[in-house]
Write a structure and sequence with these properties.
7 strands; 11 helices; alpha/beta; Rossmann fold; single chain; 42% helix
Length: 284
């Protein structure tokens, strides 16, 4: 199949190059256990303002007719229930694909607190899900956060499309231009280039390049975490790239204190909600 490039740019190649550049500065790969260790802090961030992040994503998709109270939804890489909880409040059923034991426990705990039972969990990584069992079963297949882990991004998007009888959606970060993460990285890692996690607009351009007809809306939301949970997040993140010594731990704590005092740590984010119908294609 011929692939149209955008202004001479092949977005799959760009995606793969960023993946490789990130891998070169990592001393180890992400492990499922890392996400179990992050379950508490991640759950806290997603629960901010009664799951405001997930609620806003649902609101956009509902407004545009993508989901409704009768919808069945599959979330790829569910974490602590980023979309499971807010979507299950307003939909018929949600299936979570999540391999990390700590995150699974958080989904169950968060769902119990909300009085929700209209969900199930596939406890494995997305690449190991048997598509024969879920082919064309879901009105919406949605992913957030995990897409940058897929070097073979279009293969995994095609798998999402196999499971969808309606729409697919990828929710990705939009750079806010904030300097905290960049300054902290430079203090700890020196001249090592900051890792790039391409989400938006890369995912939109990938979809368009491969003939999809994506729609996009931008949302703004807030994350509130305790000092301890924010510190835990950064400690695990930097352990991917270097040995986290007591000196590095002190550097992280000092930066957080200067930024937020003793907490809570408040962050304002922007994310893109990109959705498309697999049945709608452009000629390329």
């Amino acid at each position: 199949m011929a692939v149209t490039t955008l202004n001479g740019m092949n977005w799959v190649s760009i995606w793969e190059e960023l993946f490789e550049a990130r891998s070169k500065i990592m001393q180890r790969d992400y492990e499922i256990e890392d996400w179990t260790k992050r379950a508490e802090d991640y759950s806290e961030s997603r629960r901010t303002n009664q799951w405001d992040f997930g609620e806003k994503v649902y609101g956009i998709l509902n407004h545009h007719g993508v989901v409704n109270p009768g919808s069945s939804i599959l979330e790829v890489g569910s974490g602590p229930g980023t979309f499971v909880i807010p979507f299950a409040r307003r939909s018929r059923h949600v299936t979570a694909v999540e391999p990390a034991e700590g995150m699974i426990k958080k989904i169950q705990q968060n769902a119990q607190e909300e009085g929700l039972s209209n969900y199930d969990i596939l406890p494995r990584i997305w690449q190991d899900v048997d598509l024969n069992r879920i082919q064309k079963q879901y009105d919406l297949v949605i992913a957030s956060t995990v897409v940058w882990m897929f070097k073979d991004i279009m293969t995994q998007i095609a798998r999402m499309e196999e499971a969808a009888k309606g729409y697919c959606c990828v929710v990705g970060g939009v750079s806010s231009g904030g300097s905290f993460e960049g300054d902290l990285w430079k203090t700890i890692m020196g001249a090592t280039p900051y890792p790039q996690y391409p989400e938006y607009p890369a995912i939109f351009n990938l979809l368009y390049q491969y003939g999809r007809v994506p729609q996009v809306r931008i949302i703004e939301y807030q994350s509130v975490r305790s000092f301890e949970n924010m510190f835990n997040m950064y400690r695990i993140f930097y352990s991917i790239f270097t040995d986290v010594t007591p000196e590095i731990e002190e550097t992280i704590k000092k930066a957080l204190h200067e930024d937020s005092g003793d907490g809570p740590c408040v962050r304002n984010y922007r994310s893109s909600v990109v959705w498309w119908s697999p049945s709608e294609r452009r000629n390329i």
